Amino acid sequence: MRITIVGCGSIGSRLAKAADEMEEVKRIYLVDLRKEKAEEVAEGLKKGIVVDSVDEELYHTDMVVEATNQEASKKIAPRVVNRGVDIMLMSVGALVDDDYRNALMQAASEHESKIYIPAGALCGVDGLRSASNDRLDSVELISTMRPIDGSRIHGKTTVYSGPARDVIGRYPRSTNVAATVSLLGLGFDKTKVTIIMDPEAKINIHEIHYSGAFGKACAKTENNPELENPTTSHLGALSAVATLKRVCRNEWTGI
After folding, report:
1. How far, in Å, CA of 32 to CA of 10, rounded?
2. CA angle 216, 218, 221 (to 5 degrees)
3. Residues 79 and 57 sit within 8 Å (Cβ to Cβ)
4. N- to C-terminal Cα separation, the chain
5. What is the SS3 assignment for 62?
6. Rounded to 5 degrees, what are φ and ψ at 195?
7. CB neighbour list of residue 90: distance below 8 Å, 6 or more residues apart
8. Catalytic one among 60, 111, 154, 206?
9. How many helices (H) and strands (E) are present in the chain, helices listed first?
10. pLDDT 10s digit of each residue in the chain, 255 long?
11. 21, 72, 154, 167: most buried by Cβ count inside 10 Å?
């Protein structure tokens, strides 16, 4: 398998290193707006090659991994699926745009491309995915995190409680988790998101609560940060690695 990784930040670089050790991966094409960053990652790999754009190797790659940001993702993903190439999306928040999401899914269907969305920095989404095949009554994501530097918040404070659609982009550290939960369950308008800022919080905590015909469930994830980038959860990066392994090896336990 040959993969193209777009974005060589903490997630992209970790994924590249993991892919370099996988027998199934024969070539790793690396793309980053900062070409020197891609070259830095490539220097530590046996299979890495730096290319100038995602389009450069689309005829030779089997899957593209988008590890950039929402704006870049919305430009990259359509070009990939319209070439009939599979893609792994890390910037899930881009899919809050209904017209964009529907067009992307339609294009993927027409060109027989697969879109992979890792679970990210959250446990329990496997149960939500299963529960959504019958009646779902409620889905709520509760995120607790430390305020950003300079914030005037001095005690534990709920700063947002409402539909997932309105939280996307406003609170970047919850954006992708909120989008993933919404896509798996009740959608962006019926999924409730609560954001709590706590100056005493040492790590980001995500909880999902959902109920329906199956019963009730609650999953809590206390996320340690990536060492190279404290704004990224370590589990989120590991989720990308796990997804690549499942795709390459056709191993689907727990789906």
Report:
1. 12
2. 165
3. no
4. 22
5. coil
6. -110, 125
7. 7, 11, 65, 66, 67, 68, 73, 118, 120, 176, 236, 240
8. 206
9. 8, 11
10. 999 999 999 999 999 999 999 999 999 999 999 999 999 999 999 999 999 999 999 999 999 999 999 999 999 999 999 999 999 999 999 999 999 999 999 999 999 999 999 999 999 999 999 999 999 999 999 999 988 776 788 889 999 999 999 998 788 878 999 999 999 999 999 999 999 999 999 999 999 999 999 999 999 999 999 887 888 899 999 999 999 999 999 998 887
11. 167
Contact 218, 179 (CB under 8 A): no
- Token pair of 44, please? 């530590």
- Do 141 and 192 meet the contact criterion of CB atoms below 8 Å apart? yes
Residue type, 206: H
The amino acid occupying position 87 is I
For the CA atoms of the chain, what is the radius of gyration? 18
Q: Is 206 a catalytic residue?
A: yes
Identity of the residue numbered 142: I
Contact (CB, 8 A) for 189 and 197: no
Helix (H, G, I), strand (E, B) or coil at 208: strand
Spatial distance between the Cα atoms of 85 and 187, rounded to a whole number of angstroms: 26
Of the candidates 17, 70, 19, 57, the one whose C-alpha atom is nearest the C-alpha of residue 40 is 17
Identity of the amino acid at 44:
G
pTM of the model: 0.93
Reading across the β-sheet that carries 2-6, which strands appear in turn? Answer: 48-50, 27-31, 2-6, 63-66, 86-89, 115-116
Helix (H) or strand (E) holding 159: strand 157-163
Residue with tokens 């070009």: 79
CB-count burial class (<10 Å; 0-12, 13-18, 19+) for 227: exposed
